[in-house]
């Protein structure tokens, strides 16, 4: 594999219009000001003025700035749509190295983190629904197969019951085949240990899991509503615990939130998905770039007063940018 070379900043910036280049230079100077750095910055240009191009220019500047001082540079891109996330993370990739782009879910990091550790530069795309809003969702069959191999042995008193419980909506035989063929050698031992340690502090989840497993000893093609709800809730809690324990595997240097007004709940940190996002934003050296043409509502109609509050929306945005009450 050819060695990764530092991006050519001058070439990247030459592709921008003057106002876009000026924006990049201003954001970078504020983010890395030696006296009073702005660790969170909002770009609120109108639609069509090239916010993604500005973000690409900033990515190049940040990578160039950190290249000789850090062992690994992680750029994380978050937007509300998975296909757009995968498309735009490629547009932000200034390295020209296709292997540097890792679209993934936080909960699947145990299977790819070895690759992250071995690369100088990583681009990771995430969406709120698949990576942060985890509590009541079954996720994908890959996540549930991974959970099977991550769970402590004393949780798996019955292999059949646990696989029935984690099967979710997947075909019974297909899920068992996925579990048996899962690349266990790819699971990062440090992340597995972190997950097991986290579970050791949550006895109530273990008790709930073992109780649910008892009800899943026999496979049933159709589940009662109560069992299906319990399954969804329990798998969601396990995915959330896994995501929390996986945050330490990321080393975000630049986090880009695109059209963040569509998932503002992550900025508030008032629920568990927000708590997970807050853990990501709180990395000591991370810089956060917000992109939006409409960062808050300019006014509230009379019919919207019960659900919307433009002043509160504005204050929430400013509070996040200044990182204080």
SSE layout and pairing:
Blueprint: H1 9-14, H2 18-31, E1 40-43, H3 51-66, E2 73-78, H4 82-92, H5 109-117, E3 121-126, H6 128-131, H7 141-150, H8 159-167, H9 172-181, H10 189-200, H11 203-215, H12 225-246, E4 252-258, H13 265-268, H14 272-281, E5 287-291, H15 310-322
Parallel strand pairs: 1-5, 2-3, 2-4, 4-5
Total DSSP helices = 15
CATH superfamily of the largest domain, please? Tandem AAA-ATPase domain
Roughly what fraction of the amino acids lie in strands?
5-15%
Number of domains: 2
CATH class of the largest domain: Alpha Beta
Principal-axis shape equals globular
Oligomer: single chain
Kindly identify the CATH topology of the largest domain. Rossmann fold
- Just name the CATH architecture of the largest domain: 3-Layer(aba) Sandwich
Would you tell me the overall average pLDDT?
87
How would you describe this structure to a colleague?
The chain is an alpha/beta fold. It has two domains: 9-133 and 251-294, Rossmann fold (3-Layer(aba) Sandwich); 141-245, no CATH class. The protein has 15 helices and five strands. The protein has helices spanning 9-14, 18-31, 51-66, 82-92, 109-117, 128-131, 141-150, 159-167, 172-181, 189-200, 203-215, 225-246, 265-268, 272-281, 310-322, and strands spanning 40-43, 73-78, 121-126, 252-258, 287-291. Strands 1-5-4-2-3 form a five-stranded parallel beta sheet, with helices on both faces. Helix 2 packs across helix 3 and helix 8 packs across helix 11 (203-215). The longest helix has 22 residues, at 225-246. The chain is globular. The termini are far apart. The mean pLDDT is 87.
């Amino acid at each position: 594999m050819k060695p990764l070379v530092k991006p050519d900043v001058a070439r990247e910036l030459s592709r921008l219009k003057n106002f876009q280049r000026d924006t990049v230079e201003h954001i970078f100077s504020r983010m890395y000001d030696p006296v009073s750095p702005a660790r969170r910055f909002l770009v609120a240009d109108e639609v069509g003025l090239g916010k993604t191009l500005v973000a690409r220019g900033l990515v190049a500047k940040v990578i160039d700035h950190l290249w000789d001082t850090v062992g690994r540079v992680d750029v994380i891109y978050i937007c509300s749509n998975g296909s757009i996330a995968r498309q735009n993370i490629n547009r932000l990739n200034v390295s020209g190295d296709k292997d540097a782009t890792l679209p993934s879910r936080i909960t699947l990091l145990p299977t790819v983190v070895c690759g992250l550790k071995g690369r100088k530069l990583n681009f990771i795309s995430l969406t709120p629904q698949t990576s942060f809003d985890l509590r009541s969702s079954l996720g994908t069959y890959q996540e549930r197969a991974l959970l099977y191999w991550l769970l402590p042995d004393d949780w798996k008193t019955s292999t059949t019951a646990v696989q029935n419980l984690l099967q979710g909506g997947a075909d019974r035989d297909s899920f068992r085949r996925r579990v048996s063929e899962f690349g266990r050698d790819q699971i990062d031992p440090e992340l597995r240990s972190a997950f097991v340690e986290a579970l050791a502090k949550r006895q109530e989840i273990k008790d709930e899991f073992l109780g649910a497993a008892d009800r899943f000893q026999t496979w049933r093609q159709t589940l009662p509503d109560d069992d299906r709800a319990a399954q969804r809730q329990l798998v969601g809690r396990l995915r959330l615990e896994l995501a929390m324990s996986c945050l330490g595997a990321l080393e975000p240097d630049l986090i880009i939130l695109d059209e963040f007004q569509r998932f503002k709940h992550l900025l508030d940190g008032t629920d568990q998905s927000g708590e997970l996002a807050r853990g990501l934003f709180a990395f000591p050296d991370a810089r956060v770039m917000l992109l939006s043409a409409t960062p808050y509502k300019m006014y509230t109609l009379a019919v919207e007063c019960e659900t919307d509050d433009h002043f509160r929306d504005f204050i929430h945005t400013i509070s996040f940018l200044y990182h204080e009450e």
